[in-house]
Amino acid sequence: AALTPRLMALYHSLHDHYGHEPHWWPIFGPDRNWEIVIGALLVQQSKWERVEAAVSRLLEHQLYHPSALAATSPELLSPLLAGVAYPQQKAPKLIQLAQHLSRSVGGDTTRWLAQPTLPLRDELLSLTGIGPETADVILLYAGHHPVFVVDAYLRRLFARLDLISNCLTLPYERLRATIEAALPPDIDLRAYPHLVGSRTMLFWDYHALINEHCIHHCLASRPHCDTASAPRRPFTRPDKCATHCPPCLGCPLRPVCLAYRHQATISVIQD
To answer: What is the DSSP string of the chain?
Structure first.
């Protein structure tokens, strides 16, 4: 119960700073859900800008749909994934995923993702190349299941704000369950009309805001705490960065960030 207001205060600060970005996950092809599945697998250890380029090449070479990917070879697919991390490893994983989808539901992504959350999550985790974080990204963004995605950005930000004890080392499932319990199904979202009362949309928007914040301001080694107007990212679709890259005077979390206050204290002592 004590964690709930702190989590919502953080969400409010991030939303107030960045606003709502409906284009946070831009879609280039005709199958939104399948493209999110592709993106979730390719973005592992990769910048999103490179994933966009890879998806565009899949469309250009008519290897976008599950049926086309299921019938191709790693040798043909790997060059099209150039730029993303480990294309030679991700190519066979993407092909195996497309083959699984073709066998189980005839390539119907919508039908596949409409399964109940727990059995679908178990199925995703049984597939090569899909761990808990990737599974939850697919569940949340493609399947609209109410699961909170835990990633390195979240752990970094929560640790610097001291939101959850030992969040850098807590097991994935325990940290996810802690956050979901603090943001229960009956949580009051009336203050945020863009969420249309949906807890799933809260999880979607919250994760997106955390990611944007850790890309623009809360960087791993050299945070842009006092940097005004962090530069826009070179996305293929400029509307993706339309409202998430606003002119600003620096990180809005400086007053409550323990890492920032610690840094400021050290600076004063050195001066």
So the answer is: --HHHHHHHHHHHHHHHH---TTSS---SS-HHHHHHHHHHHTTTS-HHHHHHHHHHHHHTT--SHHHHHTS-HHHHGGGGBTBS-HHHHHHHHHHHHHHHHHHHTT-HHHHHTS-HHHHHHHHHTSTT--HHHHHHIIIIIT----PPP-HHHHHHHHHHT-STTTTTS-HHHHHHHHHHHS-TT---TT-GGGTT-HHHHHHHHHHHHHHHHHHT--SSS--SS-SSPPPP--SSGGGGTTTS---SS-TTGGG-HHHHHHHHHHHHH-
